[in-house]
Amino acid sequence: MKKFMITFTLALSIACFSKGYHTVHADTSDSTTSSQTTTSDDNNQSDQSSDSSDDSDSGSDSSDSDQSSNVQPTKTITFHYQTTSGKQISPDVTETTNGNSFYSYAFNYDGTEIKPYVKAIKGYVTYYQAPDQLTYDNLPSSITVKYVKASDAAKQMSKYYMQYLNRYRNKLKLKSLKTSSDLNKKANVRAKELEKYFSHVRPNGTSYNTKNSGYGEVMLGVDLIYSGPNKTLNYQKTAENCAKTLLTEDALHRDTLLNTWSSYGAAGFNLSDNGSTLCGLFKL
Second label for 61, Cα 20 to 30 Å away, from 26, 173, 236, 239? Predict the structure, then answer.
């Protein structure tokens, strides 16, 4: 997971980054080399040339046979992209392989960026965790990647995050933070901005707390947690893990979440299969 630099401006930031297919070619073929002997005898030269040609043809046939025997049968797989209700949200993709695997995550192989078979679809996030690797030997004829609306998942995570934070604060005899629609909107806007530019400075060059209007901010790169028998996206565990991370990362983050000056709090989640971000805001 990729880490962002921690900053603090009445607010703190942490970032942890997050989840193709990958093909590896290992084609080894035998090569056959044929050498010919020439003499000054014209008749022998002609005969040997003929013999050499026969030998060469024989060697070529052998090489072709070896190469054919190394090629595995072509297999085909079709990837479907649907919501949990079965609605198609992206065109199907059909791929073939003669021995290579497909991967759900992107990475670099020999200088080549390998794309995942899991698509990052705007406005959606995967609901069921896709298999990391689909091998040639066990390749299914098709696989369906299921998604949920990112905004729906984000609302649930925001709720669980604030519930956990307030329970933690109450244990320390601190007041619960109230929520407001205005602060929630601001937190959601900032979470989306963090995907583009992970900083307390907004993409337009201004501070999140322009005119020192009494805001505090924390930032975090979100690890999506999948659990249960079907490996589904766990909203509660994902949200609570974010709060725990901020509370235990260092004293500055902890103090911001446990501050005594704010009356309102909000958590905005921006969810994507390319990487998810959280912005927590506090206000007087």
Answer: 26
DSSP 135: -
Contact present, 257 and 246 (Cβ < 8 Å): yes
* Half-sphere exposure for 152 (CA within 13 Å, toward CB): 11
Rounded Cα–Cα distance for residues 278 and 245 (Å): 12
Residue 139 near residue 94, CB atoms below 8 Å: no
Return the residue matching tokens 């911001």. 256
Token duo for residue 231: 């490996």
Q: Which two tokens stand for residue 120?
A: 């990052």
Residue 189, amino acid: V
> 207: closest CA among 190, 185, 182?
190
User: Which of these, 13, 14, 19, lies nearest to 231 by C-alpha position?
Assistant: 19
pLDDT in tens, 4-22: 333 333 333 333 333 333 3
CB 169 within 8 A of CB 248: no
The model carries a pTM of 0.74
CB 213 within 8 A of CB 199: no
Q: Name the token pair of 5.
A: 């630099």
Q: For residue 43, how many C-alpha atoms fall within 13 Å in the half-sphere facing its CB? A: 0
